[in-house]
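anyone seen this seq b4? input:
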Amino acid sequence: QVQLVESGGGLVQPGGSLRLSCTASGITFSNYVTTWRRQAPGKERELVAALNTAGESTNYADSVKGRFTISRDNAKKTVYLQMNNLKPEDTAVYYCYVGPWRGQGTQVTVSS
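predicted toks r here
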């Protein structure tokens, strides 16, 4: 049974930082591309960051370039999203994807 468990969301003030984690079980994690997507209220889900299987090639949405960093630890079957200099417009539910599988989502709220 495939399971992705996310953690690390919460409430943070503008300019603050959060690190999201997503740990997989039931799959050969290292075989799959990992991505983070987010969905804000009333908006479509959008790609935030993607990372290839070896952790060498990344792709970021223009809105988060220079502020967010995606990384992975294949030994721990975990993908991370380090989010710095957070802005109110980053408020959304964040989902991790490992290949075709999706985590449960974690809420990130940026507000003073």
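The radius of gyration is 13 Å. The chain has a mean pLDDT of 97. kinda curious what u guys think
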